[in-house]
Amino acid sequence: MMFDRRLVTHFDWVLLLTVCLLALTGVANLYSATSGWAPVGAPIYVKQMVWLSGGVVLALLLSCFDYRHLEYFSVVGYVLTVGLLLVVLVLGKTSMGATRWIALGPINLQPSEVIKIVMILLLARIFGRSAHPLGYSFYDLWRPALLLIVPVVLILKQPDLGTAMMLMFISVSMLVFAGLQRGTFYGLCAVAVSGLSGGWFFLHDYQKSRIRTFLNPEQDPLGSGYHIIQSKIAVGSGGFFGKGFLAGTQSQLSFLPERHTDFAFSVFAEEWGFAGCLLLLLLYLFLIVWGLYVSRRAADRFGMFLALGVTAMIFWHIVVNLGMVIGLLPVVGVPLPLFSYGGTSMVTTMIGVGLLMSVSMRRFKF
Amino acid sequence: MGLDSNWRDHPRVQRRFLLFSLAVALVFLLLILRLWYLQIISFERYNERSVRNRTRVLSLSAPRGPIYDRDGHLLVDNRPSFDVSVMRQDVVDASSLLERLARLLPADLDALERRWKEGTRFPVYRPVPLAQDVSRDTVERIQEHSRDLPGVLTEVRQVRNYLAEGDAAHLVGYLGEITEEELASDRYDGYRPGDYVGKIALEKSFESYLNGQAGRRLVEVDVKGKLLRQLQMEPPLPGNRMFLTLSRDLQEAANQAFGDQSGAAVALDVHSGEVLALVSQPTFDPGHFARGIGSDEWQTLLTDSRKPLQNKVLSGLYSPASTFKMVVALAALREKPSNAQRVIDCSGRFELGGSTFRCWKKDGHGPTGLKKALRESCDVWFYQVGLELGIEKLATAAREFGLGAPVGFPLPGEKEGVIPSRAWKRERFNAPWYGGETVIAAIGQGFVLSTPIQLAVMTAALANGGDVYRPQIIRRIENWDGDILLQTEPELVRRAEFSDNAWSLVRQGLVAAVNEAHGTGWAAHLDTVTVAGKTGTSQVVRRKSDEEEELAAEEQQEVPYRFRPHALFVAYAPADDPQIAVAVVVEHGQHGGSAAGPIAKAIFKEYFRLQKQRNKDNAEGDDDV
User: Fold this and answer.
1) Is the pLDDT of residue B549 over 70?
2) Contact A236/B3, CB-based, under 8 Å?
3) Rounded CA separation B239/A192 (Å)
């Protein structure tokens, strides 16, 4: 690829700055969340910093790459990833009762994360090619539906309800944006409601107990309700201005579980209070709105759907994680993008950001 | 991309972007509102919960107040006791743990298993006590092996330290773990399970003074309960200092004089009612209660026929026997002053309505006047005079001395005794009064019953001319700043009114009993101080079925222990300026003079030795100035 002047002049500095600001706040928060730990190897926040740097480099590389080439790659990528999901089920690495990983030498590959990006690309290709002025009907949807259901079922088998849900939320968001006929829309709603109620019987016991616990966390305050209760205490006791950096008692004294991963936001809320949370949420909101803005100004329909899918992915992760942390949604293991510790989440998010930047930079017709 | 050249500006697409943006904003607004609810509206609630999460209140037990004697000698204080207990929830394999402990503790496996089983009745979070008051070495050994002994705790607890072992145990009492019922009562408001409280006597009655106030430590803990730092500390307030009216040395002398006989002795200050010594034998070691008394030991104490747990001074009921004669004599003199010159010929027997009443001296005392009757304790003189006096007048006089009613001792458990009268008998037995019963009552037998403390109060009143004081055991209670919280003043309960002549005649009789030839109380005679006293030999109440055994025993010339009469002796000294009054009962001691007299003598001897020493010290102190 030749160096192109437009790479600099059209570069989406706003997006990069927003992402870096959020991610660095996240690193600082991780520093506080894990300050009481005796480090085994490098401290968590250093590791996260390494992941962040790698992620930024990855995003920059992706932004140089013309996203339009990916339209053709999406089919191959989909087949490969679904294949990997099958492999995971057969000989994956088990962690915390669920089988999600494939060990590739030193790197643990998590195909259920990769499928999110691949699915976005594939759906962007499908929706980008066929514009239905009156919206999609049931008949038009059998192909994308089938393509979605295969990985969703494979992921549910692992079992990983959170990722399966994310995949569906992202796909449905893209579908709704693509437009549905009125009857199809209501029909889909009916399917979703019956699917949710019927799905209860297919849930694992631990998933059922999580939902029961969500409905009434105090029934088992030391067991399954512990996470939610402690998280709400941490967030609520932050008050308006918070307890101060490194001074959150709930988190520093280890009452808050998983405070460096899924519950990282609780630590932030306890130490920075409502004021800090408001700023952070506005920053996230800005990121999402900027993603929609990129999508709206994309050079082509594929780019539009691609940007929209990536934005939906980030949005749903934020909403489900925050909803869980502040007790609005059941506990589902979904990390907060750019904030929770974890290489997988960071890489997936940064790939999305790279794709967004790529779309953003190529918005001008030339 | 030629599907639709102006697809981007299509109103449907525009509208969808607008709708999506609005939906996103709405969701974020919802999240922000939720955060507002949690962090602003519910802040107080969650903040309180976060504080509760990370803080624990640890109780610091207060040292219990020490107890001193009247001169400031320490009788009871505290010492650390090392206890070994185990947290049930941390134990994986109980039987192997107990086996390992049995090798380290001075307790065998059976005992440990029993305690473990007892402990399983309690809630899980409560440590099960396995051994109490173990040595420092044992504690160190257990701490060394703590890795192999998961859940085992060693704790330090303050326990009572009794400096004079067994002394005044009945008066001081002992401590025990608080019971469920006690916890439920208002009296023990603020106490917690596992606390130790006074179970009887002073420790119980003055619990609120002695207990002190537990301190509190507010500490910060992490999620595992590991203590991180102290946030706040309220030091415990030690219990108040209690000064008794007892004299340590007098108490010791009285105990020693008792030897292994059983019975009771009490010494009172004649002019205030202060208890100078109080002995109830056999006694028990309150220290064993501090160590956690074993159920075997407790059973032994409970079933011992000599009743070591009973405070016999207050609740032992004995016929006053001849010690009662001083009251009879006073009553007779008040009724008929000429009784002072009354001479009755004692033949050793007294006939009334076909019944024969014997004098203790088989051959009789011959012609006997008041003084001789008291000195030699002639029963016939009192039979006659008592019969003439009548039971009602006799009872009135006895009540004036505080007999037949509780003396108001400041501890619970006091018996009131019996001073019979016609009305009493009608109510009690629904039967008329017989003259023979008056005769028997005149020598303090029959229905008449009294406690040693009543006899001591009676004797003190005789000595001081009729003032009946309420016995006191607390001199004062003061806190550690020296503020006096409680101080007792002499409390005059009633007065026994008799003529000066009557007082003096009866006192002379008592002086004669101890100091003249043929006096029954010679055993209490002292060369240095004149003692006035009266002996008594109290028949033991026996059942019909016992009589055969008694007859059989009589042939062997020896009366079985439990049928032997109780020996009584009451006395005061010095006779011309009374200071101390004493009542002694030696159970089954046979003869008042020989068994009880020496104990009274020992008490007097120590009392006046102490007084002499004090005077000497004072004199030396004056010299220094």
Assistant:
1) no
2) no
3) 72
SS3 A323: helix
- pLDDT attached to residue B420: 95
Domain range summary for chain B, segments of one domain joined by +:
57-221+232-244, 248-284+313-618
B623's tokens = 């010299």
User: How much is the mean pLDDT over chain B?
Assistant: 86
Please, which residues 128-147 of chain A have a Cβ atom closer than 8 Å to chain B? Answer: 129, 131, 133
Q: Using an 8 Å Cβ cutoff, are B391 and B399 in contact? A: no
Concatenating the DSSP letter of every residue in B219-249 gives EEE-TT--EEEEEEEE--BPPPEEEES--HH
CATH of B57-221+232-244, one of 3.90.1310.10, 2.60.120.10, 3.40.50.2300, 1.10.8.60: 3.90.1310.10
Report H helices in B55-108. Answer: 94-104
The CATH H-level superfamily of B248-284+313-618 is DD-peptidase/beta-lactamase superfamily (3.40.710.10)
CA dist B511 → B90, B323, B534, B574 (Å) = 73, 13, 9, 10
Chain A residues touching B28 at Cβ < 8 A:
281, 284-285, 288
Contact A235 B35 (CB under 8 A): yes
Question: What ipTM did this prediction achieve?
Answer: 0.93
CB A118 within 8 A of CB A151: no
CA separation for the pair A28, A24 (Å, rounded): 6
| pLDDT digit string, tens, across residues A299-343 | 899 999 999 999 999 999 999 999 999 988 888 888 999 999 988
Chain B nearest-CA residue for A174: B20
* Interface residues on B facing A, Cβ-Cβ cutoff 8 A: 1, 3-4, 7-8, 12-13, 16-17, 20-21, 24-25, 27-28, 30-32, 34-36, 38-40, 42-43, 45-47, 49-51, 53-54, 220-224, 228
| C-alpha span between A262 and B268 (Å, rounded) | 79
Beta-bridge mates of residue B157: B81
Find out whether B239 and B65 touch, Cβ atoms under 8 Å: yes
Interface touch B47/A239, C-beta < 8 Å: yes
Report how far residue B396's alpha carbon sits from residue B496's, in angstroms, rounded to the nearest whole number: 10
The separation between the first and the last C-alpha atoms of chain A, rounded to the nearest angstrom, is 18
- Cβ <8 Å between B46 and A232: yes
Where are the alpha helices (H) located in chain A, listed in sequence order? 6-9, 13-33, 44-64, 70-91, 111-129, 138-157, 161-178, 182-199, 205-215, 226-236, 249-252, 264-296, 301-325, 343-361
- How crowded is the C-beta side of A107, counted as CA atoms within 13 Å? 8
